[in-house]
């Protein structure tokens, strides 16, 4: 948590240097987030690109469905330097699905840790 909060604080203190987006933000407003990233990088979309639906195409190409269907991400082979297969990084692509992969006790512990770490700092990811 500390490293994530460090990036969030840096984005608040130096918004021109650090852009902080949550998975929830990207799932809720994908077009807006892609535009925000482009603007942050100093390459906003031109009117022509907007008219050609470039932003929509980027969102489509980067969607959970597109990425999870790439052959490289379907691989179940494990490598010695990384004993996790690529397919392990993809579940459903849904916000909050993590609770379905933990026991009720683990969920409660995660909620306690999250509340403790985020208490009083003004960051809320819900």
TrEMBL record:
Keyword terms: Transferase
Transmembrane segments: none
GO molecular function, one term: sulfotransferase activity
Tagged with keyword Transferase: yes
Record's keyword annotation contains Transferase: yes
Top class in the EC scheme: transferase
UniProt cross-references to InterPro entries, sorted A to Z: P-loop_NTPase (IPR027417), Sulfotransferase_dom (IPR000863)
EC identifiers of the protein: 2.8.2.-
Residue ranges of domain Sulfotransferase in the record: 1-121
Source organism, top-level taxon: Eukaryota
Family affiliation: Belongs to the sulfotransferase 1 family.
Record's protein name: Sulfotransferase
Annotated organism of origin: Gossypium raimondii
Lineage start: Eukaryota, Viridiplantae, Streptophyta, Embryophyta, Tracheophyta
């Amino acid at each position: 948590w500390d490293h994530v909060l460090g990036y969030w604080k840096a984005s608040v203190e130096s918004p021109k240097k650090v852009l902080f987006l949550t998975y929830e933000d990207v799932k809720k407003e994908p077009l807006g987030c892609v535009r925000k990233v482009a603007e942050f990088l100093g390459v906003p979309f031109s009117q022509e690109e907007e008219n050609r639906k470039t932003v929509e195409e980027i969102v489509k190409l980067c969607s959970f469905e597109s990425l999870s269907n790439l052959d490289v991400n379907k691989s179940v082979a494990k490598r010695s330097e990384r004993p996790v297969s690529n397919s392990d990084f993809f579940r459903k692509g849904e916000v909050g699905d993590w609770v379905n992969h933990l026991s009720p006790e683990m969920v409660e512990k995660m909620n306690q840790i999250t509340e403790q770490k985020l208490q009083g700092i003004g960051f809320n990811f819900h």
